[in-house]
Amino acid sequence: MISDRLLAEFDSIVRNYPVRRSALIPILLTTQEHLGYLSDESIAAIARYLNLPAIDVYEVVTFYSMLRRHPVGKHHIQVCTNISCLLLGGEEIFERVSKRLGIKEGETTSDGQFSLAEVECLGACCNAPAMQVNYTYYNDLTAEKVDQILQALQKPEER
Ligand code: FES
Q: Which of 57, 74, 111, 125 is least surrounded, with the fewest CB atoms within 10 Å of its CB?
């Protein structure tokens, strides 16, 4: 469900572009930030809002791995296993995260805290292997670094 508040944000985003459809990706990202993922209902509403066929919106949503079709955990971990990361241990990093959290590709822990995805290049090849947790990048990963990162994320938040 697209709230009035979210629609107001759409209006503000659209004003930044000379062509309405150019606002599609910012609108998708904003919707995802508010709702956690892009449901069929959201996609239909965005298509109506931008006067686009729904298939145009689906094509964009399914092309970019940063756009999600399903809910993810509070900490969404994306581990790169593309060539630079692969050569420097990306698959081992993925396995380490998977084993420590007890989840596989595309899964979320039962407490909803962590989800795991194997992704293509994160654009951090110079510091491979790399992973991203929500919007934070972690580079030059080792098994020890992964353990430290996960341990820090598992700590209860201080109030
Ligand atoms: S190949 Fe992993 S960040 Fe580019």
A: 111
Mutate to test the pocket of ligand 1, among 65, 78, 85, 119 (most ligand atoms within 8 A of CB): 85
CA of 86 to the centre of ligand 1 (A): 8
Rounded to 5 degrees, φ, ψ at 78 are -120, 120
Question: Which DSSP helix (H) or strand (E) runs through 28?
Answer: helix 24-35
pLDDT at residue 81, rounded to an integer: 97
Helix locations, the chain, DSSP H: 4-14, 24-35, 40-50, 54-63, 83-87, 90-101, 143-154
